Amino acid sequence: RIRRVKCDLARPxxxxxxxxxxxxxxxxxxxxxxxxxxxxxxxHDATQKTIVAPxxxxxxxxxxxxxxxxxxxxxxSAPSPGGLQPFLIxxxxxxxxxxxxxxxxxxxxxxxxxxxxxxxxxxxxxFFAQTVxxxxxxxxxxxxxxxxHLDRGSSHHASTRQHLSDGLGATEQALLHYNxxxxxxxxxxxxxxxFSTLVTLLVCYMFNCVxxxxxxxxxxxxxxxxxxxxxxxLSATTSTRSHGRVADYDAISEMDHLLSQVxxxxxxxxxxxxxxxxxxxxxxxxxxSGSPLPPPEQGFTSLEQASDHVDVLVAQVMDLRNKSMxxxxxxxxxxxxxxxxxxxxxLEVWHYLFDDMTSQQLQASxxxxxxxxxxxxxxxxxxxxxxxxxxxxxxAWTYLSSFGPAREIEYDAYLPQFQQCLAxxxxxxxLRESSAAEYGSQPTSQMSTFTPExxxxxxxxIIGAKCRxxxxxxxxxxxxxxxxxxxxxxxxxxxxxxxxxIVEIEESGGPLEDLATENMQDIPAWRRIExxxxxxxxxxxxxxxxxxxxxxxxxxxxxxxxEVLYLD
Length: 568
Hints:
- The protein folds into two domains: 61-66 and 76-275, no CATH class; 285-364 and 374-510, no CATH class.
- Helix 17 runs antiparallel to helix 18.
- The protein has 18 helices and six strands.
- The protein is mostly helical.
- The chain is 50% helix and 6% strand.
- The protein has helices spanning 15-20, 99-112, 119-131, 133-151, 159-162, 170-188, 194-214, 217-232, 234-241, 249-272, 285-289, 303-323, 334-367, 380-401, 415-438, 457-466, 470-480, 492-506; strands at residues 449-451, 485-487, 490-491, 529-537, 547-554, 560-566.
- The chain is globular and about 70 Å long.
- The strands form two sheets. A three-stranded mixed beta sheet has the order 1-2-3. Strands 4-5-6 form a three-stranded antiparallel beta sheet, covered by helices on one side.
């Protein structure tokens, strides 16, 4: 006879869970992982950002993927990852600190696709983090480094080492999981095995995030480039598998569907990397540039399709500006003008198709009887993405249109466009708060966030650096400092400090509060910074040690200036 152990309702895990090793079905609360670390049991400081969670159970409680109620007919569509269910959830990879995977579940994974929210991608990510050791260790490393980002700027920053149960600091533990993931990938990777390729791509994606958060930007780019090369090799593998046995159709279709999700994320990061690296050329840029936009009578069918197209166009704009940094269009320079005009036409076509799609959707939602929509036709998340796509388009159009022989003076003619971009950025921030409230998440203004995707920061930097209107610049600084966030290698605090220093230099070199520039014309061309770059050094994720090596060159000068800045 089997002796049954009853649940004694003890939080967070009862004696039944502790004695049998099962996963507790209840008491999992998203906000529980945000309790203060230094408070005694039952007492928590709401202002403290250090992450802790109960650690009385060796198995982390994670959501289980459920099977679909009915099997889809063969050949109708690719099976959804939501139909996968692990027969075993791996034990916690860190039995001393089981909050590590809790944090990844409730925070890291939710913000990895901050600007392109996808439940399908989140489900796939969590499924492999639950069941595949290499991905699980990579997720643990990301969670530990992400915790350091959450602690950034907190008065309790020093508690990161203190509150890890096995005596290791967050950085040391992250490195331990990082190396374990590498060893597992090297040991188990098979070049022509689809599942092995999928795991390797997921680990590349995770490692890119880990190194971006840790400030190891060169390593992050190596992981991204490796993932891109592996993704490009998949076409031949997929073609070979397509000639396999008919009995394997479901497995092939499911695997291809999973691979396509990961490849989509890798390619998006590859296209967006041109936003912060001058010498970066996206692997898909030439291939993507040959694919025309949908004809006007067809139009876009989804926001994701519109996003894919505008990402390519923005990459083309940045690629032209980066490669032609020392070439300025003149009457005889027909090549650059021709490329510039071609991209501008494509941007205008995109804008027409985008406006047409959104207006049709809004009209349909307003005429549908019994609609429970807000009257605007889209959810809060969709409206966030709409505003962000509009901002990307307008910033790229302005940045390319102002590319002319007058160099930095050209930007003065585009003040209305810069002001419109700033308004879109402000609207996006408000909508993001509304979206967080709608979906029951913590408002982003109350926490530090990270995403490997590009969102607001490059656009705000271009506005702050190139629009010389003093009011616009100070509004940009306010938005950048609204909350701590990282988008790939872009850091909001670092970007704000760089923009602030540019303003100080251009508005006669004094402290920002002492400057008295009243309009753009007060800044002559010779005092305008034309090219600026910087390297952000992070030492142990301690804010006081973060420094910025800044380099710049004035519009009418050839000399490079260097300076070291420190974050307060």
